């Protein structure tokens, strides 16, 4: 009866993106018993993820095959003992992983949940011929997740892992190239690397030879069933001076964005960081810090460390008064108004500076960011055109033109539409913390108010 399961898998593959299918379904085994699909999964995590995210899809497909129900059978695979020396010094290319970067120490929220789940699955099951592309601004967890995959694999006794930054990759390649041993460099990856973790590939922009070598290596590794995780600050299409063949290969990856932590995730991060230092912060302190510090994870961690250090030096308990002193010394403006909050959140979301946003530059990412802010101010806060004109120092006709231009873009560009939806949701959560009456609406439901 496994033939029926293979047909069901084929149907799943038709309805899901290939990358998603590879992670969650390609290696699963199933059997049909008395009009019921018994699906064998490796662990409770996989069962819950499939159940929560693909249950409706599976039920639809099972109906097509006249199968009435689905049941999960968990078949835990025994994990190898951790090796005393998880690295082979002879084969090592790259750098050692930091032991602090583990899945257990990663704070999961809506801003990074999908990236976490995919990386966790890779570390647990190591799907073959799989390319993941994590991108987002500095300090959002790309390095943590990438190294967590390597640490997870090493703990299971799997040591054919290469972890490098783009700078490392370039330095090694130049070293071997100058020694006339470039083929030896390639062979080390081909023979000793089953999982490649490569960080910061935006660094390769403009380096034509390196890009060509990486593209050929990428083809080989994927053809041989290897697993690859890249990280970057930008999407492949946003990187200038990138070879089209490499860009095409990167665009075929499972591309996942890590976003700036939302309000609820910031609270979790603050509690987690404080707990690691042996402190349980008062409720009002956590709420206050999460409202005021909207930066990346490193900035949040620095604030928690500073607060606890201040309390320790003064020999005082951590209090709201101390937290306010800290925020004031960090130069963070308390209780930003709605307009400032929207501008700040949008700038962080797209990784641009506030000064650049209000500059005369007409770069595409800046123009789109301005249009999005105008759109949110007009449609979310119902700001009059006159006020938006004053904010951007633009003529009435220019604001209208930008609003209409963005609406046209949204009709054609589904990726931009998804980004705007996520951004609006994030802003709504921030605003609702100050104004409980404000609710999130998908942009499909927003009634445009251009004129």
Question: Care to describe what's here?
Answer:
The longest helix is centred in the first third of the chain and has 21 residues, at about 45-65. The chain has helices spanning about 1-15, 20-25, 45-65, 115-125, 140-155, 165-180, 180-190, 210-225, 245-250, 265-275, 285-290, 295-315, 320-330, 340-350, 355, 365-380, 385-390, 395-410, 415-435; strands at about 30-35, 35-40, 70-75, 130-135, 160-165, 195-200, 225-230, 255. It starts with a helix and ends in a 17-residue tail after the last helix. Residues about 80-90, about 435-440 and about 445-450 have low confidence and may be disordered. About 30% of the residues are buried. About 55% of the residues lie in helices and about 10% in strands. It folds into four domains: about 1-75, GMP Synthetase, Chain A, domain 3 (2-Layer Sandwich); about 115-255, Rossmann fold (3-Layer(aba) Sandwich), CATH 3.40.50.300; about 265-330, Orthogonal Bundle (Helicase, Ruva Protein, domain 3), CATH 1.10.8.60; about 340-435, DnaA protein, C-terminal DNA-binding domain (Chromosomal Replication Initiator Protein Dnaa, Chain: A, Orthogonal Bundle), CATH 1.10.1750. β6, α8 (about 210-225) and β7 form a beta-alpha-beta unit.
Share of helix among residues?
Answer: 40-55%
Structural class: alpha/beta
Q: Pick out the low-confidence regions.
A: 78-92, 435-440, 445-451
The name of the CATH architecture of the largest domain is 3-Layer(aba) Sandwich
Query: How many beta strands in the DSSP annotation?
Result: 8
* Highest CATH level, the class of the largest domain: Alpha Beta
CATH fold field value of the largest domain: Rossmann fold
